[in-house]
Amino acid sequence: MKPKWHWKVLGYVYLTIVILVTLFPVYWLFVTSIKLQKDWLSRPPVIFPKQTTFSNFQKLLASPEMQLAIKNSFVVAASSTALAMLFGSLTAYVLTKIVLGNRRVNEFLLIGILITRLFPFITLLIPYFLMMRDFQLMDTLQALILINTSVFFPFVVWLMVGFFENIPREIEESAMIDGCNLWQRFLMIVVPITKTGLSVTSIFIFIASWNEFIYAITFTTHQAKTLPVIIGSFITDKGIQWGDMTALSVISITPVLLIAIFSQKYFVRGLTMGAVK
Amino acid sequence: MQTEARIRIQSVKKLPLFKMTDRKWAVVFLTPGFILMLIAYVYPLLYSLYLSFSSWDIFNPDGKIKLQGMHNYYKIFTNDALLSSLVRTSIFSFSALVIQLVIGVSVALLVTSEHLNQKFTSLVRAFLLAPMIISPVVAGILWRTLYNREYGPINYFLSLVGISKNPWIADPDTALMSVIIVEIWLFTPFVIFIITGGLLSLAKEPFEAAKVDGATPWQMFWKVTLPLLRPVILIIITLRIMDLFKTFDYVYSMTYGGPGESTEILTLSIYKQGIKFLDVTGAAAASWVLLLILLPPSLYLLRKTFIREGR
User: Fold this and answer.
1) Which residue of A has its CA nearest to B17?
2) Average of pLDDT values for A154-167?
3) Which residues cross the membrane (chain B) (predicted)?
4) Engineered SS bond to B168: which of A140, B178, B272, B305, CB 3.0-4.6 Å?
């Protein structure tokens, strides 16, 4: 049974509207970042600028404060991803594959790790704040790396359990018979087999930690500021700084954009899977 | 183009577990994670629970943390600001959830429909990724420019169809609605992707059987699609409720709770109370109230994660 033609037209119109509403803000972000100043202070707003400029980007990239923030963001995201991936997959592997005395122990530990996903971050923020103060870690990259690693560790464990449990039992059994210990099995069999899973998970963690905002804004004041902190502190409208705001935003989404373009499949899988688990 | 996600519900009950052979390595593998869990979760949570039952004059260098029972919790329920923040958070969450579900299901049905051009629908699916590359903090900044009363494009587009200027986030009466719109823009694509994945993994037979029986598309949707999609929708509702109640980033960068307190949702008021005004004991108590609110959906999700769906 075929739907009547006007239903089809309605479907096309609806999807077109959804797409226009979805895409326009993204277009606006990019286009505002390359507009001349007179164009973002004009009425009616300039939707299609005739002249463009990269001066906003040049100005931002030349400023030492921005260079530091970009560097900080990279250091924090890369280190936390590496640490969370390492610790998380080691833990996940043992919990999926080795009986710790009794299966109940494995289940208990896995559930314990999963439960952390359910806490609102704000419940942890207050104690973290006091701990960072007591240990004088305020405004250090170490603090951000430590927090991000901890926050994303449970995610890595949960995502990787899903990949590890699919490794055929026989492969590891034959390696065990050949006398491989746990570490050798992990490095030579498990890691190569779960390359996809490891990539998807690292992409997800990298993006999440690159964008991480609330801990960064709470624990940094000068030296350890990351990009989201600087973007978030545009809240005081000292006049309208659209050029700076949007150019900086574009800079901050560039790594995510590149990931989305060059590995779309991993990107979507990572985002949705991370949220579902 | 494979842009759909599949929900996989996993169970630890059936893990292919091996006997412990090299204990030394197992200890090495588990130790870093164990230490991390202790210092980043177990200790802070106990600390926070302890704080929530205490009083502490943080500005006094000799001030000690003193246990004083339920006082902080009692204060929450007699504090109008926090209560109205709770009401606001609920209005925000539930209206966003309903709209996201309606748009999510309708768009997912259309992009998986065989009656529409396949090239068009796969293009739509690719374009829907766009908000996912925008981080929430950036989304807040971006929408502030879009909502701008004088220079923003939204008021301009509306003026083209004869709607007069709306103050959006500049007016306490419309600010919360404006925040809900951003939430919908930012996270509906995620809902669409999950439902699309759910629709694509449904068995074909019930649909064919219904077709043979001469069901109208309308009946087909209510009697076949929706019941089959129920588990996926329940998971989405749970996930969204949990994330909606935890919303923070873009509200911070867009309105910072203002104007007045019109968009001050729970996370933001707890944040201000604890970090800005340093009432750490009161904020700890409020954060445990939020945790308790999120307990039912959390437990549901936990159960779902461990029980394999019978299908």
Assistant:
1) A97
2) 85
3) 25-46, 91-111, 123-143, 175-200, 221-242, 280-302
4) B178
A174: which 2 tokens?
């034959």
Interface check for B114 against chain A (CB to CB < 8 A): the answer is: no
Considering only the beta carbons, identify the residue of B110, B153, B253 that sits closest to A231: B253
pLDDT in tens, A95-139: 888 888 777 888 888 888 888 877 888 889 989 988 888 888 888
Fold (topology level) of A55-276:
MetI-like fold (1.10.3720)
Domain regions of chain A by residue span: 1-53, 55-276
Cβ B111 vs Cβ B3: under 8 Å: no
Number of cross-chain residue pairs from A and B with Cβ atoms under 8 Å apart: 325
How many angstroms separate the CA atoms of A46 and A52, rounded?
A: 12
Answer yes or no: do A43 and B138 touch at CB < 8 A. no
Q: Are A51 and A32 in contact (CB under 8 A)?
A: no
| ipTM value for the complex | 0.86
For B116, which of A11, A112, A181 is closest by C-beta distance? A11
Look at A19 and B294 and tell me if their CB atoms are within 8 Å.
no
Spell B117-139 as b/e; 16+ CB within 10 A means b: eeebbeebbebbbbbbbbbbbbb
Cβ within 8 Å of residue B146, ≥6 positions away: A25, A28, B152, B153, B154
> Is the preceding omega at residue A44 within 30 degrees of 0, hence cis?
yes
pLDDT attached to residue A1: 54
pLDDT at A273: 62
Beta carbons of A22 and B131 less than 8 Å apart = yes
Where exactly are the structural domains of chain B? 79-279
- Which residues of chain B fall below pLDDT 70? 1-17, 20, 60-62, 305-311
- Contact assessment for residue A119 and residue B45, using Cβ atoms and an 8 Å cutoff: yes
Task: Please give the Cα distance from A210 to A81 (Å, whole number).
Answer: 9
Q: Residue A183's pLDDT is what?
A: 86
- Tokens 């985002």 correspond to A271
Q: Are B285 and B76 in contact (CB under 8 A)?
A: yes
End-to-end CA distance of chain B: 27
B70 with B52: CB under 8 angstroms? no
Q: How many residues does chain B have?
A: 311
| Residue B302 to residue A43, Cβ atoms within 8 A | no
Interface test with B, best of A203, A246, A268, A277 (most B CBs within 10 A): A268
Distances (CA, A) of B182 to A195, B63, B143: 36, 43, 7
Distance in Å, alpha carbon of B16 to nearest chain A alpha carbon: 6
Closest by CA position to B288, among listed B72, B102, B24: B72
| Helices of type H across A186-240 | 191-193, 195-211, 214-219, 227-232
**Using alpha carbons only, what angle is made at residue B220 by residues A21 and B225, rounded to the nearest 5 degrees?**
65
**Residues of chain B contacting A242 with CB distance shorter than 8 Å:** 145, 151
Measured CA to CA, the distance from residue A111 to residue A224 in angstroms comes to 34
Q: Among B138, B249, B302, select the one facing A114 at the smallest CB separation.
A: B302
